[in-house]
Design brief:
single chain, 1144 residues, Phage tail protein beta-alpha-beta fold, five-stranded mixed beta sheet, 57 strands
């Protein structure tokens, strides 16, 4: 082709190489000319080494010299050169040739730029242009055309095929999975020597959700992902391999495009390219202080060269309550209320006033009951999501601009969330060896909600189903006499949950901005310097208002008047990182990758708080929050936290010999301002090795094995997630009515030591040691691939609040004590079951077994006990840690049914019940008019005490909140244009502390509040017979009435008690996602200028198989001391989605 030869002669090059590989020569020629070389890797790898010395010679001269030495030939098309190897004797007479033209696209309809289109067995080939178009001349009749591109399956077509007009390349998942993201760089998966779990954008895109947690749950072995509850703004909780810290945050380090973030709740899934989870120290040690609990690396979609393309994704969702807790209907509730009044007062006078005569109670069977769960959590709220992405660019400048908007209506009435996200990535080649990468993000979030979700949920569960009287007349909320019991206590059930909801106003607004830039300098062959700087700011405003009719207004000291409060928070952080990386292949067998780096991280929080009370009764939330001066000032604080700074130096060395033997070494030294001078620095080294057996010559005969690699690693990582100033005193300025001072005098403003713990200047790093053995395998040409890992993690020098003598003025001090461990096994499998032209089916499965243990506590201590934050709860502790046992153990009393008449002596004169000697005595748990009698719940006497009285000494371990098994499995496939995905996740053998159960099964409730159907007449021990007569003072009648009772009386206790009846097995299997989609044929869309269009329908949380009686067994994992509590949280919804993916 003379015109192409002439074009090549226009460029001159200078080259001086001796015994160099052809591939390295192509790299040098590309840098000097700006041209790109495309070639078959096998052809280049088998070509002989070459020696050339030229100065300012035409490019064509150099190519001719290469041809002479290698028998390679070149074909120029615009700015690309395709490389081929001549096969002697394969020339076809040119008289029978043709010209073919066409377009190469991917499965989404996007143009594939730089794809090679070549006549098989010849050097005749071209590459596609910016529009994906090609023109190939001199094609012999009957020849085979090869179409190939990196990361895609090669296509072979005959020269006469009509499919050459439009060729669709399919992604090659084996090649796409080759690269994973490590700290400060990438690596081929085949070169990985540690434990990494990855999820691709393809997998994430199959879940229609604005939450990353929904897309990841159950997909990675050993990575437990939950949300705190079903609220729209629920935080995402991620725990890798159990977590080893007792009191500190066990969440991993989250990095989005290299920048640390607090969580992943604000990252739109449609913007994610990949997620890689580094699970052990050989991978995480390069992050030092922050990597002890694993590292989650999120990479958002990067700019790609090509013609500007537009993608639009949208869906609409509706939600419904996945399940309700069974509560009493009108008749059951009124019967329970009658019993309550008869036992409490000995008469039915108050009952008759509100609910009518006992003989008329049957009429309630025919009235409509109100289940307030339907009113507060019912309905079918609508959510909308929109994503618009524009990307493209030239070889020098590429961009990716994404806008995301979602507006959700929550399942909880009055709740809602709206988000806007803008992400701009712009990469520009400043000079031949210098690139600029920029990344700008702007995010806003507005959360609407009435008060806190827990308050609304518990109110809905416990509010009476009827107002009383068959006429429907209601209890008068303004009648003080009616709303006070005989002791003058408020009944606290004046207003319905809907009315209360209207009285609680809350709006949280958040704006976040981040700017990141990096300079990448390719200094010389194999050497690259990268300098990146990022800054991020987040401003949030949280407004709350409680009206005159709210329960807050009726609390003591509030005088039934409105109140308001506002919290403003400002957080800023910056990061500066510099890395120097050297990569080279020596003598084609020694592959070296070295990296040195330095990093500085800084973050600081400021917040202000103000509150006011006693606003005018009729004031609106907007008016009160606009002008706090209309109320009486209550509190005002302003707090600027000490800056959290970390300086780091780190390095990593990767080496492999012939892609057969691998070694990795990393180190990091971190200095943190959270520790005193002299204690600030921690050093965290790690190393790993691997042996790729499948590359051994003696393994070639085992043909069914495609991949086999053994791995081993050992390393250290740190944890400094404590408050910033625990090593010295700090002070705060405060205003309020309870200022400390002589004679309790008030001061408008004062300064005081603002610390819960006594400072400790000897605090040091908490350190985690990880050990890992792994096996990666693939069989039957990688139709089945998998990974097995066995690990043992030890966390020492635990940062825990230890008890100290009160003479210090404090009760606790943060110190380094103790040691914990996690041991486990993980298995991941991926299989390609069917692969044909029209039908594909694949499956995935993962399972993880984990067991944690407390190895050591403070010197001389063998156990620690602590108490979860629960209101009106008995005792000083309900969780326990003991050396040699698991963390997260629930500590309480063991239920032993209920007391029967035979357990008591009855005094006919005093009408009092007295326990017989030797019967365990629970009487300390009953008070007031709930006198201790048959029907009360009974606990086992476990202590050696001579007394029959049940005390804290009779408490024992009654539950373990740590799941022994976690995992997930799924199926995905396609038939022609139809596709489907189904995914399940599961957790086995763990306990849930069901606090809600006590509230609904006992007297720990508000007056006139509802109960669980578990306490209906047919099951509970009761004191009123069918005629409405109180038989609690008639032993014979009471025994006869309850001969078939199945559970204790709901009037057993008047305070919260941690007991075995509240501990339930939380094991579950959940259908997380089911999606069916249809991609329209291209021939239907081409006239409309549309490249691809897919419509899909999806369901999430469709069903859960579990024996747990609460809303959902997948409760939030709190800190190590008090996990697994289900207490008044918004239940998860069942979600149905209709969406589309559009490309044009």
């Amino acid at each position: 082709m003379p015109d192409q030869a002439q074009a090549q002669k226009e460029k001159t090059v200078t080259l001086n190489v001796q015994n160099e590989t052809v591939e390295n020569v192509f790299v040098q020629l590309g840098k000097q000319t700006g041209l790109k070389f495309f070639y078959d890797q096998n052809v280049v790898n088998t070509a002989p080494r070459i020696s050339i010395k030229v100065k300012n010679s035409p490019l064509q001269t150099v190519l001719d010299k290469i041809t002479e030495q290698t028998n390679l030939f070149f074909n120029r098309d615009n700015n690309t050169i395709s490389v081929g190897k001549q096969k002697i004797g394969n020339d076809v007479p040119k008289s029978k040739t043709r010209t073919i033209k066409g377009t190469v696209v991917d499965e989404t309809g996007e143009s594939v730029i730089g794809a090679t289109v070549m006549v098989k067995g010849t050097t005749n080939g071209v590459t596609t242009n910016l529009d994906g178009n090609y023109t190939l001349n001199d094609v012999p009749d009957g020849a085979t055309i090869l179409i190939s591109y990196i990361g895609y399956q090669t296509v072979e077509l005959k020269s006469g095929s009509k499919e050459l007009a439009k060729i669709t390349l399919k992604e090659n998942s084996e090649l796409l999975d080759e690269v994973v993201v490590l700290g400060y760089g990438n690596i081929r998966r085949s070169d990985v020597t540690g434990s990494i779990a990855s999820v691709s954008s393809e997998s994430i895109s199959k879940v229609a959700s604005a939450s990353v947690a929904d897309a990841l749950a159950g997909k990675m072995a050993g990575v437990q992902i939950t949300t705190t509850d079903g609220a729209l703004d629920a935080e995402i909780s991620i725990r890798v391999r159990g977590g080893g810290s007792i009191t500190q945050d066990n969440s991993p380090l989250f990095l989005v495009d290299g920048f640390p973030v607090d969580d992943l709740s604000g990252i739109p899934p449609t913007d994610i390219e990949s997620i890689d989870v580094l699970k052990e120290a050989s991978m995480t040690a390069v992050y030092g202080a922050r990597g002890a609990n694993g590292v989650v690396i999120v990479t958002t979609k990067n700019p790609k060269m090509g013609k500007t393309s537009v993608q639009f994704n949208s869906y609409v969702q509706t939600r419904t309550l996945a399940g309700k807790l069974p509560v009493m209907n009108n008749y059951e509730f009124v019967m329970a209320e009658y019993e309550y009044q008869m036992i409490r007062k000995g008469s039915a006078d108050t009952f008759i006033k509100n609910f009518g005569y006992y003989d008329d109670i049957d009429l309630y069977k025919y009235t409509d009951s109100t289940d307030w769960q339907d009113e507060v959590l019912g309905g079918n709220p609508i959510s909308q999501y929109y994503n618009l992405t524009i990307s493209g660019g030239s070889e020098k400048t590429k961009f990716n601009l994404s806008y995301n908007r979602n507006k959700d209506e929550g399942q909880l009435i009055g709740s809602g969330l709206s988000r806007n996200n803008i992400i701009l990535k712009l990469n520009h080649e400043l000079f031949r060896n210098l690139k600029l990468e920029t990344n700008a993000t702007y995010r806003t979030r507005t959360i609407d909600g009435a008060g806190t979700s827990g308050t609304n949920i518990v109110t809905a569960l416990r509010f009476r189903p009827t107002n009383g009287l068959t006429s429907g007349a209601s209890l008068d909320p303004d009648d003080d006499d009616e709303n006070l019991d005989e002791d003058g206590n408020s009944l606290n059930q004046r207003y319905t949950p809907l009315e209360e909801n209207k009285q609680n106003y809350r709006k949280r607004e958040e704006t976040a901005i981040s700017l990141k830039a990096a300079l990448v300098w390719d200094m010389f062959k194999g050497m690259q310097f990268r300098s990146e700087y990022g800054i991020s700011t987040t401003d949030s405003n949280d407004d709350q208002f409680y009206g005159a009719l709210s329960s807050t207004a009726s609390a003591a000291g509030m005088n039934n008047m409105p109140s308001a409060k506002r919290t403003k928070t400002h957080k800023e952080s910056y990061r500066l990182a510099n890395t120097l990386t050297y990569r080279n292949l020596f003598r084609k067998i020694h592959n070296v990758n070295l990296m040195l780096g330095q990093e500085i991280n800084h973050s600081q929080n400021n917040n202000t708080f103000m509150s006011a009370r006693y606003f005018p009764v009729s004031i609106t939330a907007e008016a009160a929050l606009e002008n706090f001066a209309l109320g009486t000032p209550h509190q005002s604080t302003s707090y600027k936290a000490a800056p959290d700074r970390t300086a780091s130096f780190f390095g990593r060395g990767l080496y492999d010999y012939k892609s057969l033997y691998y070694a990795t070494f990393t180190f990091r030294a971190d200095g943190s301002t959270k520790f005193a001078p002299g204690k600030q620095w921690g050093v965290f080294p790690a190393g790993s090795i691997a042996w790729r057996l499948s590359k051994e010559k003696w393994m070639k005969s085992v043909r069914f094995i495609s991949e086999l690699k053994l791995r081993a690693s050992y390393g250290l990582a740190g944890n400094n997630r404590i408050s910033d100033d625990l090593w010295h005193n700090i002070y705060r300025v405060y205003s309020g009515s309870s200022a400390p001072g002589f004679n309790n005098e008030e001061y408008n403003y004062y300064q005081f030591a603002d610390q819960t713990y006594l400072y400790d200047p000897d605090l040091r790093w908490e350190t985690t040691i990880t050990r890992n053995l792994g096996l990666d395998f693939g069989i039957f040409k990688n139709r089945l691939t998998g990974t097995v890992d066995v690990y043992w993690n030890t966390t020492k020098d635990l940062l825990v609040p230890s008890i100290i003598p009160n003479s210090s003025g404090y009760s606790r001090q943060m110190t380094n004590v103790g040691r914990t461990s996690n041991r486990g096994v993980e298995l991941s499998l991926n299989g390609k079951i069917v692969q044909t032209k029209n039908f594909n089916l694949s499956a995935s499965f993962n399972v993880a077994f984990n067991k944690n243990k407390v190895d050591k506590l403070s010197s001389g201590e063998t156990e620690w006990k602590t108490k979860a934050s629960l209101s009106n709860w008995y005792g000083t502790y309900n969780y326990k840690m003991e050396v040699g046992k698991s963390m997260g153990l629930i500590y309480g009393f063991v239920n032993d049914g209920f007391y029967t008449v035979d357990d008591f002596n009855f005094d006919e004169t005093t009408k009092k019940w007295t326990l017989k000697p030797g019967v365990p005595d629970n009487s300390s748990f009953s008070s007031g008019n709930f006198s201790f009698k048959p029907g009360a719940m009974k606990f086992k006497k476990l202590s050696d005490s001579d007394s029959d009285l049940i005390t804290e000494e009779d408490m024992t371990v009654i539950g373990n909140t740590n799941p022994k098994v976690t995992g997930g499995f799924g199926l995905s496939g396609s038939w022609k244009n139809l596709d489907f995905t189904a995914f399940f996740n599961y957790m086995c053998d763990f306990d849930v502390f069901n606090v809600n159960k006590l509230y609904l099964n006992s007297a720990v409730r508000r007056n006139y509040s509802n109960l669980s159907t578990n306490m209906n007449l047919a099951r509970r021990f009761r004191y009123v017979d069918d005629a409405g007569v109180n038989v609690s003072s008639d032993p014979v009648a009471l025994a006869a009435l309850n001969q078939n009772a199945a559970t204790y009386s709901w009037m057993s206790v008047t305070q919260g008690i941690t007991m075995s009846d509240l501990i339930e097995d939380g094991s579950f299997l959940r259908l997380s996602t089911l999606t069916v989609g249809y991609t329209f044929p291209q021939r239907w869309l081409s006239r409309l200028g549309v490249k691809s269009l897919r419509l899909y329908f999806s369901g999430s949380n469709l069903f859960t198989l579990t024996g747990y009686s609460g809303y959902d067994p997948e409760v939030n994992i709190q800190k190590g001391l008090t996990p697994g509590i289900d207490n008044n949280v918004t239940p998860r919804s069942r979600v149905y989605t209709l969406g589309m993916n559009l490309n044009f």
